[in-house]
Amino acid sequence: MEYKDNKPVRVRWERIHGWKRKRLKLAIHNRKKYIKAQYDVWNKYVGREDVLYIHSRIGGDNWHHYYKEVVGKPWFIEKVDDCFDETYCDIYAHIKQLESEDEE
Length: 104
Fold this sequence. Notes:
5 strands
């Protein structure tokens, strides 16, 4: 890998061979799949006025402490861990739309 400011920039595939190459490709594939899953859930609810997006710090292992309290609620729709920091999660909640005063 090439580094810039101690962070990897890109993978030099010609220098990686055998089982290490297979393992790295699998890790990259799984990471892309995990990121895509988060964005697929986001795109499913984006633009809907009856869904509230909540970004909270109860992802990963923290979720086990709140699972029973949150999932049983009637407003709970779906939860997905943040793909860049798994201590955060995105929770989607169903909310009632408020009637505007202009419609009356």
